[in-house]
């Protein structure tokens, strides 16, 4: 298979986790700064109206918070962006709730919880809160969620010549699924991507190649928290790309991720 290369520019970044509330804080942790004394409980994205925010589940609030940060960082109108949202696990608390109710004698689901249970709930809250009428794809790929969403966003950015928002988010899994899925961390990360012809942003390329049983790159950060986050939260696999994007981190100007069982996607910073 001939290598296929895509190019775009990273113009904005957003991030949220229990021990960081923005991209600046996450970079500090990746560089070895100690964890804060007290972790955060959950984001409260101001862009969601108060009544809706109170009803929004954690995965939605994670996605919207980091998306809003990335849009502000890029200094663009959210309605100008085409969107890709990805969660490797979905909302397991709501899945657990619905299965329990439907297996009971009552079988009467909460309308609000049913409304929030769809996989594109985060995309819906985002587009409604920002009056966005552009396309919003919701992707899921479990352990390959990050690479699939990046591929989707970069293909659209280059082929359509449109700016993109791509958001990765996963919340801690419900108790009943912890033995299977293990994740206990909340995480969200967002990128605003511009077409390569733009004058703004850091240029990166993505190249698709054949590979046999590809593996995820090793995270350089030595923090036990970040290592646990990276290995257990499917969408936190984007941390390997985050390390590459850090301007001062010249050691990581290229990374390779698995895209499928037989293909990889390699990202590289394009020198100006």
TrEMBL record:
One MF term in the entry's GO annotations: acyltransferase activity
Gene3D superfamilies: 3.40.47.10
Domain of life assignment: Bacteria
Residue intervals of the Beta-ketoacyl synthase-like N-terminal domain: 39-203
InterPro entries membership: Ketoacyl_synth_N (IPR014030), Thiolase-like (IPR016039)
Protein name stated in the entry: Beta-ketoacyl synthase-like N-terminal domain-containing protein
């Amino acid at each position: 298979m001939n290598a296929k290369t895509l190019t775009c520019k990273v113009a904005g970044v957003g991030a949220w986790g229990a021990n960081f509330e923005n991209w600046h804080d996450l970079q500090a942790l990746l560089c070895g700064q100690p964890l804060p004394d007290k972790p955060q409980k959950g984001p409260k994205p101001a862009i969601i109206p108060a009544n809706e925010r109170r009803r929004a589940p954690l995965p939605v609030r994670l996605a919207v918070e980091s998306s809003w940060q990335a849009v502000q960082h890029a200094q663009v109108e959210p309605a100008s962006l085409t969107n890709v949202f990805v969660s490797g696990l979905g909302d397991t608390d709501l899945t657990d709730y619905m299965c329990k109710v439907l297996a009971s004698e009552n079988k009467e689901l909460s309308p609000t919880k049913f409304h929030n249970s769809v996989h594109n709930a985060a995309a819906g809250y985002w587009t409604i809160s920002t009056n966005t009428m552009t396309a919003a794809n919701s992707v899921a790929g479990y352990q390959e969620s990050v690479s699939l969403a990046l591929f989707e966003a970069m293909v659209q950015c280059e082929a359509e010549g449109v700016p993109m928002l791509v958001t990765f988010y996963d919340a801690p899994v419900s108790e009943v699924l912890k033995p299977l899925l293990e994740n206990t961390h909340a995480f969200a990360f967002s990128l605003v991507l511009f077409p390569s012809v733009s004058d703004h942003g850091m240029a990166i390329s993505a190249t698709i190649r054949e590979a046999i049983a590809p593996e995820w790159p090793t995270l350089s950060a030595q923090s036990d928290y970040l290592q646990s986050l990276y290995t257990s939260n499917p969408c936190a696999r984007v941390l390997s790309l985050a390390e590459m994007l850090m301007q001062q981190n010249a050691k990581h100007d290229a990374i390779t991720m698995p895209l499928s069982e037989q293909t990889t996607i390699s990202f590289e910073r394009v020198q100006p």
